[in-house]
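Field reference: sequence -> structure
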Amino acid sequence: MSTTIESFAYGRDVTTGLTFENAVDAAKAFLKDEGFGVLCEIDVQATLREKLGVTFRPYRILGSCNPTLAHRALTAEPQIGLLLPCNLVVQEIDGATHVSAIDATAMLGVAGAGSELSPVASDANERLGRVLERLSTQPAS
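Structure field:
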């Protein structure tokens, strides 16, 4: 399966042939290949069921961090931690599994960040883009 990466104001999205759980596992593995660790994993479906008693689609937020990029960003802008980590979302929409990644340029641009953060954002976007590309080409599972 090969799909295009669709961009929106603050991120990018692909549809993958993987099941939801397989997409979560693959996303973690591909993030690791790009130097990211998953610092937190939020199961939105379970949280909304537990806290509000509502039914919601499978939706997982993976808070990922590349330590080298984080160090560069925090050195350039001490308060940038408010905009970290780089989130990746895996969710089911109308029976299809979607994976979305934050656009680091848009995220860091919120800080009115100067040119020191531009290379960090570009590097993060390239890495996250490769994760999305790999996910978009996974065969159906």
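Note: The chain is about 40% helix and 25% strand.
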